[in-house]
Fold this sequence. Notes:
This protein is of the alpha+beta class. The protein is built from 2 helices and 5 strands, in the order ββαββαβ.
Amino acid sequence: MIRVVKLWDEQGVPCGFCCNGHSGYAESGSDIICSAVSALVINTMNSIEAFTDDVCSCKQEQKSGTIEFRIVSKPCKESLLLLDSLFLGLQGIEDEYGKRYLTISKEV
């Protein structure tokens, strides 16, 4: 299962996400859920880095499928929109395929 946790700063503003695991929907290389989640996550990180001046940190571990992406500066409105877009896309996948393959939660 892929677990995505929305990260929030001290003021309650979204500032990133942590994504880990593999969906287990199909064999590696044929898993459409992992592919879709990866495309959304990587595009969001690349877009924030390319289209904003926000300062970000990213930690990745390929074997476990873990990516932690955090905006360490105050997120600009464009970054917030891109994060909202990511979570909308991920929610659509979770709604379509179920929590068996993808869960989204908020860091408390």
